[in-house]
Amino acid sequence: MTTRRLRRAAGGALAAALVVLGAPAVASATTISVATTGTDVAGCGVPPVAPCRTIQFAIDAAGTGDRIDVAAGLFTDPVTVDKRVTLAGAQYGVDARRRALPAAAESIIQIDDSTGVNVVADDAVVDGFTVQGNATACGMFLSAAHSGYRIRNTIFFDNVFGLYLGASGAHPTLLAQDRFEANNRPGAAGGNGIYADQGTQNVVVEDSLFKDNTLNTPIVLAAGSIPGVVQSDITIRGNTFQSENSLVLVGVDESTIEDNLFDGGAFDAVSVSGGSENLRIDGNTIRGKGRDGVRVRDPFGAGPSRGIEVSGNSITGSGEAAIHVLAGAEVGGLVTRGDRIAGNVAGIVNDDDDRVLAEDDWWGCNAGPGAGGCDTVAGAGAGTDANPWLVLGASALPGRIAAGGQSAQVTASLRTNSDGVDLGAALPFPSVPVAFAATLGAIPASATTTGPAASAALTSGAVAGTSTVTATLDNQSAQTSVAVVSITGPTGPAGPAGAPGPGGAP
Question: How far is CA 256 from its chain centroid?
């Protein structure tokens, strides 16, 4: 298990409920129901009284820790969540990324005002809604004066922008399994899935889908130029950015972008600026970006960023460069390791005065950056140290098998660099497919790397001989041989003579 996966597993363990021995008994939470057919009267939503009509009436009547179940339907009245409650929509617990349901099955909140759903309470939960159609501002506003929000399984659609992400950091905030789609109405911060500029700390955005937010970007954390505003301890992981523009980090510190898929779209996958510090960009798949995979810049004059580490990513098909450091944008030297940098117009372009350290990356061929079949290094700055680099090799164990269905494990490995140093199985490297072919016997057409290696089983057929197995990644192939031998047992002793046959006809 990689380090980032261990961190993720640890995060899940921390989310488990805590049991405090000797704690006083806590009163049971009340569930209040809301439906478009209901009526806002005292006691509504709690049997035998019929449901409330508006979400706000139920929130006002609720106590701390209560749950409000909102039936499917369209709700257009203002909503302010000002206490610790759980708002549970009709699709509570149902992953918003894959929902393809009729509107009649969704709890839809459509508010046209300056905040949308206004959440101003620690530890409030919103789960299972569609929040849409705010032509004035965001679909939902999370106050920077509070924290501990849980926004899950919710669709943000057709707003000026999807969600305003403020969080004080006192409690961990989680956004998970949400969908931010086509938030492109004109207005301030329009065209963003998530926007923040008043302070965001101790936040995880994970396992969510961003698509068709075409006027701007999927996520903008933009407080870098505002004095006293802190953006730190932010993790963006496991998300899919489908044909989106850049994920923009301005003045973001001590944060991680990991295990995301950036698939197509204009500009960059990740744009870093505003004097950001100590960022890790790990384990992402970045493919087909119109400009750069990772771009470090300083367009606002806030000063250079520092402590940027890029490791274990697959960056392919970028229209300009896999990694691009602009002049004056970074101090101390950006570091890359274990990245797949292949099939881009350029590999690394460094226009900065500090050298980029890019040892032990894969450039698309065994000959190293700038060789035929490999990506290049370029730029007007201090240059890029890309030596040594990773090389592709192949091996088989055992190297000799019997015909008739025996198997050998064939491994394609990138754990050795061009200096011949074995970097070990813990080297960060992305999950990418390696193609396999064999001249004799059967082998799967491809296998995916786990760490810096991929393995497939060669199974012998009835024919003996030498099987040449080829493993191919990008523009490089490596070969190994497996002897397939025919095994014939020793001849046994002759059996007894048979009885004489009958005599012939006279």
Answer: 11
Which uninterrupted H or E stretch holds 10?
A: helix 3-14
Confidence of residue 225 (pLDDT cuts 50, 70, 90): low
What is the H or E stretch that residue 506 is in? none
How far CA 16 is from CA of 13, 177, 256, in Å, comes to 6, 18, 22
Lowest mean pLDDT among 101-115, 134-148, 218-232, 387-401: 218-232
Under the phi-then-psi rule, with left for phi > 0, alpha for psi from -120 to 50, and beta for the rest, what region is 122?
Answer: beta
Taking the model in full, what pTM does it have?
A: 0.90
CB 105 within 8 A of CB 92: no
Sign of CA dihedral 65, 111, 106, 237: negative
Pairing outcome for strands 155-157 and 129-132:
parallel
pLDDT in tens, 142-183: 999 999 999 999 999 999 999 999 999 999 999 999 999 999
In one letter, which amino acid is 403? A
List all residues 6 or more positions away from 394 whose beta carbon is below 8 Å from its beta carbon.
Answer: 410, 411, 412, 413, 469, 470, 471, 478, 479, 480
Instruction: Give dist(CA 268, CA 47) in Å, integer.
Output: 54
Place of tokens 């099987």: 467
Work out whether strand 407-417 and strand 155-157 pair parallel, antiparallel, or are unpaired: unpaired
DSSP letters, 244-267, are ---EEEES-EEEEEES-EEES-SS
How many CA atoms does the CB half-sphere of 470 hold within 13 Å? 10
